[in-house]
Amino acid sequence: MKVLFLSHSYPRFPTDPVGSFVLRLAVALRGQGVETRVIAPAAPGLANREEYEGIAVERFRYAPARLETLAYSGTMRDQVRASWAAKAALGSLMAAEFAKALRMRSGFRADLVHAHWWFPGGMVGTWLRRWWRVPLVITMHGSDVRLARASRPAAALFRRVLTRAEAVTTVSSWLAAETEAIVPTVHPVVAPMPIKPDLFHPGGSRAPDTLLFVGKLNLQKGIEHLFRALALMRARPTVDVVVGVGSAPADVAALAQSLGVADRLRWFPLLPQSELADRYRACTALVMPAVEEGLGLVAAEALLCETPVVAFASGGLTDLIVDGRTGLLVPPGDVAALARALDDLLSRSDRGAGLGTAGRQAMLATFGPDAVATRYAGIYRTAIAGHVA
User: Please, which residues bridge with residue 239 across strands?
Assistant: First the structure.
């Protein structure tokens, strides 16, 4: 079976965490006899064709180099809202992706198209489905569902795209419910992406009072909630902050200073996955006060490293964390409860190590590459069998 992946986020180098789960799925599918090829946008400094772990990615140009900034930055939506040039670049991106796929057809005759994110990839996927008469699978990862809820036109386009796919998957049950609320006739299969358990594994020694935050420095990811909780805590832990794409420490420096927590923060840029795994293993706990997170892949990676997680009971995080068993959950937005939970964990004799141990076992069953590849290969076969050309 041959499957073409469409993705606007994909690793730019072998250890890049950006879109790494798409690469992980492609690699895992080889064990199921599925050959994949990836189409992704160009960006400054990237080659037209590369191969990571035996998976070929073909990148397409869609604008002058100075305007090829929509992909990989995590700011596509904001750019398109703010600029007519970005709107034009987005239209060009979709057209160029479609044209690239058509040119690849002679060398890679896909039996199925798998679009990651319903927009822009899913939209392009519907064109290829009609042109090639092959089935389409669309996976929602989180930000795209928030986009669908942003306006009536977006919701209408969401319905149009999803109802043209043979199968729709989401990486969490929360996303599945959100999708069904907008498109009641579509019933997504919950099928998360794989994580490398040999990369994210336990080991080494942990700092006794060091928390870790990984992500963009925005309200949705919860950095403000974390700072306010730190100001309320009895304990005074150090917090390592690994900054996600599209953010900078200066974005939140004033808030940290005003709350009196700036001196307890240590800043790290976006890290290669191996270095991020080291940070998981070195900290006492991961803090993830995100709201309406599609899944919370960072939390899954941390749990595979047997790192306990303290989070808001929101979005896909409730799929990963069972309160009191694999981590600690508090009501979304409740900063005082977050502070109490962190104090509770840091006061335990084992610093929550038992939560982390149970968490790894739970994550292996859900995110192990073999289990995920088996699930997706089955989805593909069902989609192909049910497709009417």
Answer: 211, 265
